[in-house]
């Protein structure tokens, strides 16, 4: 998998002055566009589209300082429809406009070219199982929240705190399928997985019952799910599990992520500082992987 990702990085470098087709990148990585975006964001810590944009502006910055081409020619070569659009993007990354950068020879920001390497640690094993599930329905309360990779998500905290005890008890009575009890469900995430992008967030249950008045139903089609478990401080242990699944488990197993909701069941320990968690992710066999 890492070899294929590095071949994909080479393709990006060779086409920075052309349209970079994500479908072609996925073909070279022998995976789906959806999984490529997820994997790249988890491994690199930056969305794929943002990496490509920053690499373009890095090499464009070198061309600006070299002084051999007009600023408009550089703008057009790296995909900008006008000098103004190029200047805005250039300033956003480098902190200075291209004209001023050329006149003063100021230092610019550089996005390093990425190469993926295997680091052998073996310090822990990941507990998981794979389940094939028939179609089911999530029923609960829904809101729209920003994605937060590290630390508390205040929007989620405020939403959950606003759910009354009576409503939560009504939800719990509807639960009749695994994972049992009230669960957190994330759906309709931005493909980039960038910090601050929005997603649908549910506090709900997995049930065969119809949605009561005032609640929302999310139908989930049949499919395969990878189920991961962890225990530890919240929210750190859960956020680290999410990261480890994409940086360690997927590269080591013949599965890839597929579109669908992500389900988290959390059971708090006495005191509220730690929890047992179970993370359900929609997956499919990676036909290009061995195993």
Automatic annotation (TrEMBL):
Q: Which Pfam families match?
A: GyrI-like, HTH_18
Segments forming domain HTH araC/xylS-type: 6-104
> What PROSITE patterns does the database record attribute to this sequence?
HTH_ARAC_FAMILY_2
| Superkingdom of this protein's organism | Bacteria
User: Which SMART domains does the record match to this protein?
Assistant: AraC_E_bind (SM00871), HTH_ARAC (SM00342)
A GO molecular-function annotation = DNA-binding transcription factor activity
Q: Which UniProt keywords apply?
A: DNA-binding, Transcription, Transcription regulation
PANTHER family xref list:
RIGHT ORIGIN-BINDING PROTEIN
State the protein's name.
Helix-turn-helix domain-containing protein
* Protein species of origin: Streptomyces typhae
């Amino acid at each position: 998998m890492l070899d294929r990702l590095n071949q994909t990085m080479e393709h990006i470098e060779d086409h920075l002055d052309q349209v970079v087709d994500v479908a072609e990148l996925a073909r070279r990585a022998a995976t789906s566009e959806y999984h490529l975006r997820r994997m790249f964001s988890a491994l690199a810590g930056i969305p794929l589209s943002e990496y490509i944009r920053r690499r373009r502006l890095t090499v464009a910055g070198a061309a600006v300082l070299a002084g051999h081409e007009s600023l408009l020619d550089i703008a057009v070569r790296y995909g900008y429809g006008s000098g103004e659009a190029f200047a805005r993007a250039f300033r956003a990354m480098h902190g200075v406009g291209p004209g001023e950068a050329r006149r003063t020879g100021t230092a610019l920001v550089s996005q390093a070219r990425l190469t993926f390497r295997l680091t052998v640690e073996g310090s822990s094993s990941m507990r998981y199982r794979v389940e094939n599930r028939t179609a089911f329905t999530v029923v609960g309360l829904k809101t729209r929240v920003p994605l937060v990779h590290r630390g508390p998500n205040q929007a989620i905290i405020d939403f959950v705190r606003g759910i009354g005890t009576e409503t939560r008890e009504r939800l719990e009575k509807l639960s009749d399928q695994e994972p049992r009890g009230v669960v957190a469900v994330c759906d309709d995430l931005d493909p980039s997985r960038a910090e601050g992008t929005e997603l649908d967030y549910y506090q709900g249950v997995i049930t065969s019952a119809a949605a009561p008045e005032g609640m929302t139903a999310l139908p989930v089609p049949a499919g395969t799910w990878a189920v991961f478990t962890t225990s530890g401080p919240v929210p750190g242990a859960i956020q680290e599990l999410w990261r480890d699944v994409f940086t360690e488990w997927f590269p080591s197993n013949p599965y890839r992520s597929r579109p669908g909701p992500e389900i988290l069941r959390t059971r708090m320990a006495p005191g509220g500082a730690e929890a047992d968690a179970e993370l359900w992710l929609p997956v499919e066999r990676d036909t290009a992987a061995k195993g």
